[in-house]
Amino acid sequence: MVMLSASEIQKILPHRYPFLLIDRIIELEPLRRAVGIKNVTINEQFFQGHFPGHPVMPGVLLLEAMAQVGGVAMLYSDEYAGKLAMFVGMDRVKLRRPVVPGDQLRMVAEVVKVRGTMGKIWAEAYVDGQLVAEGEFMFALVPA
User: Fold this and answer.
1) In terms of Cα–Cα distance, which of 43, 46, 68 is closest to 57?
2) Among 17, 40, 81, 99, which residue has the fewest nearby CB atoms (within 10 Å)?
3) Is 50 tagged catalytic?
C-alpha cells in the first residue's frame, strides 16, 4: 500500500495553495482506490467569508477535495502519469452535513472506470466515521 505526503501529491496534481485540498494520501492502489486526509482548520482562507461567525467549508470545495483524491488514484499509474484529470461532471452528489473547523476529512475514492481519455470515480467523505458527502465524478484525462 502506497502513502503520499503533500509534497508527493504535488508531483501528481497541479494544484497548489490555496487550492490543493489534500494533506496526505494514506492508502493508494493505483487505478483502483485512494484514501486522502484533509485537516480543516479555522485558518482556511474560505472561512473569512463562508460564513462570518458560523464557518462552514463550502460544499463545492468539499467536492473538489474528493475529486482530487480520485485524481491521485488515476494519475499515480504509469499509464496516466503526467496527465491532467480535468473535472467534467458529477452525478448523484449528496452533501449530508456541514464540515467545520477542527474536522478531519477522510475521503475515499474508488475508480469505477478508466477507458482511454475518460475516467469515473465514486467518492465518499467522512468526519469521525460519519458520511458527510458522496458522489460520482467524471474526468477527462488530458496531456499536461
Assistant:
1) 46
2) 17
3) yes
